[in-house]
Design a protein that fits this description.
Layout lengths: L5 E12 L2 E8 L4 E4 H7 L16 H4 L4 H8 L2 E5 L5 E5 H16 L6 H26 L1
Parallel strand pairs: 1-4
Antiparallel strand pairs: 1-2, 2-3, 3-5, 4-5
Helix pairs in contact: 4-5
Length: about 140
């Protein structure tokens, strides 16, 4: 089994976008991460298990997912430091990329189940929240 890359978190906080709460971390080198559990909850996934990595094998999303995103979703970073226990995390922009994939699949009519539709609704909420934060950051 491949050993996961480990980074030390020096800051931890929570980002709220509408009804969605994301547990976030900043590492020593300034990278921003979202916990794996927050990633799954952010798009409306229920349950545990391999979390967002399961989306890589989702046939409805596969045609919309590029290789880089697929690799990133299968290889979380282990965050230590500000956490009581190590946490699997993903770079913040990966969530935006995942939302784009989900929304593209919806646009193409690939998402049909109640679960698929929930993912798309959550993805849309996140993208709208990112846009609001983004315009403020651009003006700053």
């Amino acid at each position: 089994m491949e050993q996961l890359l480990e980074k030390k978190a020096i800051y931890q906080g929570e980002l709220t976008i509408g009804p969605i709460k994301l547990k976030c971390f900043v590492t020593e080198d300034g990278e921003r991460f979202i916990s794996g559990r927050s990633m799954t909850g952010a798009i409306g996934m229920k349950g545990r298990g391999s979390g967002v990595a399961r989306l890589v094998s989702n046939a409805k999303l596969a045609n919309h997912m590029n290789h880089s995103l697929s690799i990133a979703l299968q290889n979380p970073i282990v965050l230590t430091g500000k956490t009581p226990q190590p946490v699997h995390g993903y770079r913040g922009e990966i969530l935006a990329d995942l939302c784009d994939v989900i929304l593209e699949a919806r646009k193409d009519g690939a998402l049909t189940t109640e679960q698929d539709i929930r993912y798309a609704e959550y993805a849309e909420t996140l993208i709208r929240g990112f846009a609001r934060v983004g315009i403020t950051a651009l003006i700053d």
